[in-house]
Every structure is written in structure tokens, then in C-alpha cells.
Write a structure and sequence with these properties.
Distance between the termini: 52 Å
Domain RecA family profile: 82-254, 259-321
Protein name: DNA repair and recombination protein RadA
Largest sheet: 9 strands, mixed
Number of helices: 13
Strand order of the largest sheet: 5-4-6-7-3-10-11-12-13
Shape: globular
Helix content: 25-40%
Bound molecules: adenosine-5'-triphosphate, magnesium ion
Binding site for ATP: 111-118
Function: Involved in DNA repair and in homologous recombination. Binds and assemble on single-stranded DNA to form a nucleoprotein filament. Hydrolyzes ATP in a ssDNA-dependent manner and promotes DNA strand exchange between homologous DNA molecules.
Keywords: ATP-binding, DNA damage, DNA recombination, DNA-binding, Nucleotide-binding
Strand content: 15-25%
CATH architecture of the largest domain: 3-Layer(aba) Sandwich
Order of helices and strands: HHHHHEHEEHEHHEHEHHEEEHEEEE
Radius of gyration: 21 Å
Number of domains: 2
């Protein structure tokens, strides 16, 4: 918060940063609150050509804006308790997730084709609209579609099935098709503005987060660039989740590897990139008929285990025995 209580979202919101300083910072490559917050006063002063005392003041302001300070464990507890959950439509799956999909967190759904990643994304963009007492957040969703697999017909069917008026449910989902990785990154850059204008947005989906990056930066020789871009993109999404108390869901297709005899036969292609980013990773697997298996991967605060759920005409549900 700045002194007038307005939420600081970018460098230009800092009281110590006027237009001329802003230009100098950006020219020197310090274009975000984070970049300034972690800079040393000397470096910043020299690079941007501003007095040392000004650099010190701006860095202090940026750190306060990002809430970079020691917190007590009690404060951490209060923050975590405020975390809200969105129901998936399956009690079993909600149970596995400790109540549902969390706000302030990025959740990765990964699994092979047809494992239900996109269906779950559709379901959650409907369920987030439910009132609190029904497992929603009374909110809206943003759906960033990189593969062209979004279907309004599914939104219509899923909303009817839970008693939401389909047209208003569709009206509460902002949709954008991302045509390439640069476009995908630019959409997320611009999201802050949309979310500031419409604070009802409580869920941001990127389905799939990896496909453009894989197609545009194939092979080992491009791995470093790909990781670098993807990491930036993912961290930006994590920051959105934390800043606006919303849930972020990303999907990541992994291929089944039938040639593997032991260990996990589905290996995330480039999936290790996502390991470095904080969040919850949920693996989805196909099972018999409409059944799917979900498993949480390395989440320190959630119990290990698997659950079965189903994808039906009406959406994501508990599996029948
Ligand atoms: P990919 O990696 O290819 O994107 P995915 O994990 O996103 O795959 P989904 O598209 O979510 O997979 O799942 C597709 C499956 O969902 C279908 O194979 C089908 O079993 C189920 N499904 C899709 N639409 C319906 C429907 N209208 N009624 C019942 N089940 C459906
Ligand atoms: Mg899909």
C-alpha cells in the first residue's frame, strides 16, 4: 500500500517515481517493482543516472509495495486461512486438494491427452461463479486458450447442470485465444489491467501453458531459451495469483511413455521447467470409461494419494462405484 492507501501495482504507482524517473528506470532495464526491489542502491543509481538517495528511497518503496519483510508465523497463518477454494464438482477430488482449487496459488494440471485437463478447466470456470456456500467464489474467470479447444457448448451444459443460467455464466468468462507464445505472454502482461477493472475475476486459466513454447522452441538446442521464457511467464502468473487473491490454473500435456518399465511412465516433456515454480501439481490419468485418476505431486502440505473421479455429460463428478 502507498501512503494514500491505494494498492501499488506498478513502478509508476510509487510515490517517489515521477514520469522522468520512470523513464530512466525503464531505459536502464528496471521495468518492474521486483527488479527495483532486489536492486542495490549503487547499481540502480549508476544505471539509471539518479542520485543515490533517490535510488535508496525507490528501492524501499518497492520493497514495501511487494510486502518484502519478515512476517510472523501468525501472520502467515492468517494469510493461509484466508485462502479460498473452488470446488471441482467431485468431492473426492476436492478432498485430495484439501477442499478444492486454492486462490493465491498456481495449480498445474498435467497428464496425457484426453486425461481431462481441458474438461476440468471448463468446469472450474463455471464453478468459480457459484456462491461461497456452494463451493464457488461468486466470481468470474479468464480463459486463455492456446490450442483452440474451448467449447462454449460445454460451458452451457455444465452451467445448466448446476443451476446457473447458461448465458450469464458464459458472460462471466473472458475468453482469449493466444496465437503464439509472445501473444500468450502479452495477454498475461495485460491481465493486471483487466483484473483491476473487474475485480470479480477470481480464476485465470491457461490451457495449455506449454504447447506454443514447445512448438516454437523445439529440441535440446532451444531448451534454455524456452525455459527462460516459460519461467518468466509462470512467475508472472504466480504473482497475479498472490497479488489479486485469485486462483491460477495451467495445463501441461505430458506423453505416456510405454517404453518405460519402472518408475512413472508419464514423464512431463519439459515438465521439469515447472518444478522451479511454486504451486500445486496435479497429475491426471485415464482410467476405465469416463473415470480419471488424480494424484498430487510433491505438495508438502497435502497428503499423498490418489482419487478417482469421472467426466460426464454434465461435467466433472464423483465416479460411480
Ligand atoms: P489434451 O492433452 O489433448 O488437451 P485433455 O487432458 O485436455 O487432453 P480433455 O479434453 O479434458 O483432455 O478430455 C477429453 C475427454 O473428456 C474425452 O475423451 C471424453 O472422455 C471427455 N468428454 C469431453 N466432452 C464430453 C462430454 N460432452 N460428455 C462426456 N465426456 C466428455
Ligand atoms: Mg486439453
Amino acid at each position: 500500500m502507498s501512503s494514500d492507501g491505494k494498492k501499488v501495482k506498478s513502478l509508476s504507482d510509487l510515490p517517489g517515481v515521477g514520469q522522468s524517473i520512470l523513464n530512466k528506470l525503464i531505459e536502464a532495464g528496471y521495468s518492474s517493482l521486483e527488479a527495483v526491489a532486489v536492486a542495490s542502491p549503487q547499481d540502480l543509481s549508476v544505471a539509471a543516472g539518479i542520485p543515490l538517495t533517490t535510488a535508496q528511497r525507490i528501492i524501499k518503496e518497492a520493497r514495501e509495495a511487494l510486502d518484502i519483510r519478515f512476517k510472523t508465523a501468525l501472520e502467515v497463518k492468517k494469510e493461509r486461512i484466508n485462502t479460498k477454494k473452488i470446488t471441482t464438482g467431485s468431492q473426492a477430488l476436492d478432498g485430495l486438494l484439501g477442499g478444492g482449487i486454492e486462490t493465491r496459488t498456481m495449480t498445474e494440471l498435467f497428464g496425457e491427452f484426453g486425461s481431462g485437463k481441458t474438461q476440468l478447466c471448463h468446469q472450474l470456470s463455471v464453478n468459480v461463479q457459484l456462491p461461497l456456500e456452494k463451493g464457488g467464489l461468486g466470481g468470474k474467470a479468464v480463459y486463455i486458450d492456446t490450442e483452440g479447444t474451448f467449447r462454449w457448448e460445454r460451458i452451457e451444459a455444465m452451467s445448466k447442470a448446476i443451476g446457473l443460467e447458461p448465458d450469464s455464466a458464459m458472460n462471466n468468462i473472458y475468453y482469449m485465444r493466444a496465437i503464439n507464445s509472445d501473444h500468450q505472454m502479452a495477454i498475461v502482461d495485460d491481465l493486471q489491467e483487466l483484473i483491476s477493472k473487474d475485480p470479480a475475476i477470481k480464476l485465470v486459466i491457461v490451457d495449455s501453458v506449454t504447447s506454443h513454447f514447445r512448438a516454437e522452441f523445439p529440441g535440446r538446442e532451444n531448451l534454455a531459451v524456452r525455459q527462460q521464457k516459460l519461467n518468466k511467464h509462470l512467475h508472472q502468473l504466480v504473482r497475479l495469483a498472490e497479488m489479486y487473491d485469485l486462483a491460477v490454473i495451467i495445463t501441461n500435456q505430458v506423453m505416456a511413455r510405454p517404453d518405460m518399465f519402472y518408475g512413472d511412465p508419464t514423464v512431463a516433456v519439459g515438465g521439469h521447467t515447472l518444478y522451479h515454480v511454486p504451486g500445486i501439481r496435479v497429475q491426471l490419468k485415464k482410467s476405465r470409461g469416463n473415470k480419471r485418476i488424480a494424484r498430487i505431486v510433491d505438495a508438502p502440505h497435502l497428503p499423498e494419494g490418489e482419487v478417482v473421479f469421472a467426466i460426464t455429460e454434465e461435467g466433472v463428478r464423483d465416479a460411480e462405484e
